[in-house]
């Protein structure tokens, strides 16, 4: 009987932890889209360990809310803000909204240098490489087509 009670208690606690993780995923832009990681705030990346990484500690210090300071911080020191890495380069994302972009996101705890995402005047953010290509195309002389 005691064994059954212990099993039920463990199952209940495990379920609560999983639900809490899903709750936090909703509070960070693109948290569910970071490749190979299910818990971006934990040192092991899975949430099996309760230890927080630098991003997790910053998120906890921010009151478990995506704030302007958390967005502008660079918790992994790679030169990209947390917002740039998670699809919110303008630090405008709110819970439930669609981030500016949803692909090419990176982990705000693992230093890597993806293409720089910039905050543009439209609702579609562009990478710095795309903007550079666009500027170069605009600088090329236009070809004239001769009519007969």
Instruction: Report the biggest beta sheet as strand number plus sense, adding barrel if it closes.
Output: 2 strands, antiparallel
Low-confidence stretches: 5-20, 122-129
Mean of pLDDT: 74
Please state the structural category. mainly alpha
Total strands: the figure is: 2
Shape: elongated
Query: What string gives the helices and strands in order?
Result: HHHHEEH
> Helix content range of the residues, please?
25-40%
How many discrete domains?
1
Give the C-alpha Rg: 21 Å
Separate helix tally: 5
Signal peptide: 1-20
Organism: Phytophthora rubi
InterPro entries: S-S_Temptin, Temptin-like
Domain Temptin Cys/Cys disulfide: 19-109
3D structure, described in words:
Keywords: Signal. Residues 76-148 are annotated as: Disordered. Residues 131-148 have a biased composition (Basic residues). There is one protein chain. With 148 residues, the chain is mostly helical. It has one domain (2-138). Helix content is 36%, strand content 3%. It has five helices and two strands. Strands 1-2 form a two-stranded antiparallel sheet. A hairpin with a 7-residue loop joins strand 1 (117-118) and strand 2.
What structural keywords apply?
148 residues, mainly alpha, two-stranded antiparallel ribbon, 5 helices, elongated
Question: Summary?
Answer:
This protein has 148 residues and is mostly helical. It is 36% helix and 3% strand.
Detail the topology: elements first, then pairings.
Elements: H1 2-25, H2 54-61, H3 68-72, H4 82-85, E1 117-118, E2 126-127, H5 128-139
Antiparallel strand pairs: 1-2
């Amino acid at each position: 009987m005691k064994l059954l009670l212990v099993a039920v208690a463990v199952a209940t606690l495990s379920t609560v932890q999983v639900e809490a993780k899903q709750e936090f995923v909703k509070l960070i832009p693109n948290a569910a889209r970071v490749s190979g990681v299910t818990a971006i705030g934990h040192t092991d990346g899975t949430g099996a360990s309760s230890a927080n990484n630098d991003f997790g500690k910053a998120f906890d210090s921010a009151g478990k809310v995506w704030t302007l300071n958390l967005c502008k911080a660079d918790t992994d020191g790679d030169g990209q803000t947390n917002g740039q890495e998670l699809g919110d380069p303008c630090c405008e994302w709110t819970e439930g909204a669609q981030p500016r972009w949803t692909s090419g996101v990176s982990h705000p705890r693992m230093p890597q240098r993806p293409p720089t995402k910039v905050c543009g005047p439209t609702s579609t953010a562009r990478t710095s490489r795309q903007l550079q290509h666009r500027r170069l195309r605009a600088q090329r002389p236009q070809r004239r087509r001769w009519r007969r």
